[in-house]
Amino acid sequence: MFAQARLTISFSISSVTGLFRCRVVLLLLSAICYFPTQVCAGHPGTVKLEDAHTWRSDGKDYLEAQFSIDLSSGAEEAVQSAIPLVFELQVQVVETHTWLWDSVEIEITERRSLQYHALSQSYQVKDLNAGTQGNYRRLDDALRAAGKIRNLLLTDQSLDRGPKYSIRLRGSLDVESLPTPVRLLAYVSSDWSMVSKWYKWPLLR
Questions:
Q1: Considering only 36-50, 114-128, 154-168, 189-203, which range has the smallest mean pLDDT?
Q2: 138 secondary structure, DSSP code
Q3: pLDDT attached to residue 193
Q4: Across 1-15, 132-146, 154-168, 177-191, which has the greatest mean pLDDT?
Q5: Of 31, 56, 41, nearest to 155 (Cα)?
Q6: Which of 159, 153, 166 has its CA nearest to residue 198?
């Protein structure tokens, strides 16, 4: 009886595991059907900080920055297939220490969604933080809009005057926001790893 019970449980677990594997295989096949040319390595994408500066007005610190976004082959094909891409522009205000690790005092993530609309033949960029959007005829213009940070309020009088602070910036493609078949393809392809390095400079106060 116990042997039969163990056999039944083992069979059930094996069946669930087999169904899970089949589902993963089907999703990967769906991803390949989405982008058959992206099974092999293509053109890698990059995200780089092109320009950034901060200024102080009425006791508050503001930031403007421009990231340069160059889509990978897979990401560009996704856009042309009307699949939205979400970019994250991470901003940190860190307190710098001589003997200890830097501590993050303020962190802001600006999110931009880029999607192509075939009917209007235009690229739509949504600021997911502010709820605003713009439409562009050219992909290059849309990418510049997606990588733009404008008049971002960083700090007010809440930061102490004594410690030293720095600004850190990083831009990236949010792979987790992709549809499941495309996301699985992004997991196994380095071409989809579009993450800039951290850029850091002192915050002058």
A1: 36-50
A2: S
A3: 82
A4: 132-146
A5: 56
A6: 166
Mapping DSSP to helix (H, G, I), strand (E, B) and coil, where does residue 83 land?
coil
DSSP string, 32-79: HHH-GGGSS--PPPEEEEEEEEEEEETTEEEEEEEEEEE--HHHHHHH
Q: How far is CA 1 from CA 4, 7, 9, 11, 106, in A?
A: 5, 10, 12, 15, 62
CA atoms within 13 A on the CB side of 50: 13
Return the sign of the alpha-carbon dihedral for residues 16, 20, 22, 23. Answer: positive
Is-contact 101 94, C-beta < 8 A?
Answer: no
Give residue 83's identity as a one-letter amino acid code: I
Q: How many residues does the chain have?
A: 205
Burial class (CB in 10 A: 0-12, 13-18, 19+), 89: buried
Is the Cβ–Cβ distance between 93 and 163 less than 8 Å? Answer: no
DSSP code per residue over 110-124: EEEEEEEETTTTEEE
For 131, the token pair is 């709820």
Instruction: Give the containing element (helix H, strand E) for 103.
Output: strand 103-117
3-class SS of residue 102: coil
C-alpha dihedral sign at 70, 88, 93, 58: positive
Nearest CA to 205 among 149, 154, 148, 152?
Answer: 154
